[in-house]
Amino acid sequence: MTANEAEQDTRARRSAAARGAARTLHRSPLHIPLTERLSALAAAAPEVVGADEATDIYGDGVVATLEEEVARLLGKEAAVFFPTGTMAQQVALRCWAGRTGNATVALHPKAHPELHEGDAFTAVSGLRTVHPTDEPRLPMAGEVREFPEPFGALMLELPLRDAGFVLPDWEELEAVVEAARERDAVVHIDGARLWECTPHFGRPLREIAGLADTVYVSFYKSLEGLSGAALAGPRTLVEEARMWRHRYGGQLFQQFPAAVSALLGLKHVLPRLPAYVAHARVVAEALREGFAAAGLPWSRVHPGRPHTHQFQVWLPYASEVLDEASLGQAEETKTFLFGRWFADGPPGLSATEVTVTEEGLDWTADDVKEAVAEFVRRLPR
């Protein structure tokens, strides 16, 4: 079996184990059969659209309704729907480059455009990136203020996913924004997961988004929508972004399934996110205690007190060993504790991401510890 075939086999096993699990911390929409998801979307659609409402054409109708709701939630003048966040952020920062006269974007080296977009900022949009810090956190005000070369925009990913879904303190965030303003730079928030940041900051979405000139949000990462994103900001920039969306090939003929699923996410999932964040902290503490009780030589839950409803777990084993233990536990006990593991750092060290959503609310700390004990039992000692 080739490496590619082995990976496909593992992926198929993981998907089947997730679908068949009786207990899981998070049931991903990716593991719901296609016809079931379509039926659920059709059944719920009347909650957010009129029974006789026409489908959208090139961004009107339900897409326009979604844009207005996002602008309202974020306290911005306007918002525009995009098929992808990759496109939304390229357009936003390209527009700002034209207005500031500086195509350099300051961001973290672990930010999504640097790791997961094939150098699109540079290859497609003619933008250049610089890094005020490479520490596993957002930049500090001093690092932004003292950076040795000019930049037109500061991009802040909230939370910084690949560093562990981490967020700064509110006062730190205010200070770093002020430091950017002192340099005459605009501030753009990569808010793919901004929706779940309110418990950590203790501030409403409008106040968080109000720090930035523009904000991008995703509809499928936390809100469980089908796809899509929005860019919110000043009306003049949003209208310019609409033109660039068309030039980038994002002016789709119809997008009503994605728009309806996004509106349903805003209605049903958004109000639940604070409960997910609170319970993620219970789960994280129970995982830490469970690993200690199981006698593992080393483990890490990061952050120790999660900033959102997602966090990382690190263990000193090869990723394939941890994948097999996770899959074996899910297949044999119907408890899906951990998903995919990734080699990260020195050889023999791996990490996974833990997400706590509706299904995870039923887990007590003791439930988590019991699942950890069963998982660790499957590891070589």
Write a concise keyword list for the protein shown above.
2 domains; Aspartate Aminotransferase, domain 2; Aspartate Aminotransferase, domain 1; 44% helix; globular; seven-stranded mixed sheet; 14% strand; alpha/beta
Tell me briefly what this model is:
This protein has helices spanning 3-20, 34-44, 62-74, 85-100, 112-115, 120-123, 141-145, 170-182, 198-201, 205-209, 235-247, 256-269, 273-293, 319-333, 365-377; strands at 23-24, 78-82, 104-106, 128-130, 153-157, 186-191, 214-218, 229-233, 300-302, 310-315, 335-336, 341-343, 350-355. By secondary structure, it is an alpha/beta fold. It has a seven-stranded mixed sheet, with helices on both faces.
Oligomeric state, counting identical vs distinct chains: single chain
Total number of domains: 2
- The first-level CATH class name of the largest domain: Alpha Beta
CATH superfamily of the largest domain: Type I PLP-dependent aspartate aminotransferase-like (Major domain)
Mean pLDDT: 96
Helicity range of the residues?
40-55%
* SSE string: HEHHEHEHHEHEHEHHEEHHHEEHEEEH
Pfam families: Beta_elim_lyase (PF01212)
Protein name: Threonine aldolase
Keywords: Pyridoxal phosphate
GO cellular component, one term: cytosol
